[in-house]
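anyone seen this seq b4? input:
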Amino acid sequence: MSGFSRLKAFDVYRKLPQDLTEPTMSGALVSIISTVFMLILFITEFNEFLKVQTVSEMFIDINRGGDKLRVNIDLYFPNLICDLVSLDAQDIMGSHHVNVAGNDLFKRRIKDGKSIQEIKHADGDTSFSMERAKKALEDGESCQVFGFFEVNKVPGNFHISSHAYQNIIPAFMNQNKLTTIDLSHQINHISFGDDSDLKQIKSKFDKGVLNPLDGKTRTKKETDKDVPLLTQYYINVVPTTYEDLSGKQYYVHQFTSNSNEARTNSFPALYFKYDLSPVTVRFSHKKESFFRFLVQICAIIGGIFTVAGIVDAVVHKSVVNIMKKASMGKLS
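predicted toks r here
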């Protein structure tokens, strides 16, 4: 028992006998108010603990994700037949590909709003069927170019035109009494990076500008009906890393863009000129640790309990003094 007695000497939470304490009305009111405040602050802090925050930082690009840049496109041309469509790409390293091919790059012939044929975009294919093109023109077909392809991770451009068939296009246009090619278009989708990663990012993150051109349309004016036009989109591509709570990283690209349109003396074309930023942006998910949450809760409970005790003591003492003066008739 002497050992237990010595152990009790370390108790910093000494207890008063119950018959030495008494409840008061002021103490009850302070207790109720302080409990409500504790509950509100606890709920607020708990919501912050559950919340996942996204933090960003910038650093010099170290060529994450390889030497190739994947381009995802979905472009619709309401007044252009697929036989006249050529997707070409070139860059500052001297690389120039006519009729670029990708693992999943297609031209879709559309008639009366319905798909009638999908044609794989063949690398370097410059074959041209005069009869098929004439029939497609007479039937009022339109064309959709969709899929993805890869380019070198250096500044360059990819463009839609008829450059691959430029030796035969003049004869075709004369035969069908065409003055120019109408490249009015609708951009359903353009992005840079793996499409599956982009979908994961959109479901997990709310930061970043991944496809600002989606939904953009440009229609040729009636005054420019017979005028060849050159439309250019200038794109600044920013390498971006996303990291979720599990530590998994996704390497994609944000981009910003602006555009202009001008008359040209050569073939009409739709250009997407891109430049790459040397700076990489990283978005990371962060969550408050449980121990920090525990410290905050202890601070809330301890702080409110202490302040409430001080307020109760002041209120109780003031009430006692007032009652004492009232009993002595000293209140005027």
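The chain has a mean pLDDT of 83. Residues 290-327 form the longest helix (38 residues). kinda curious what u guys think
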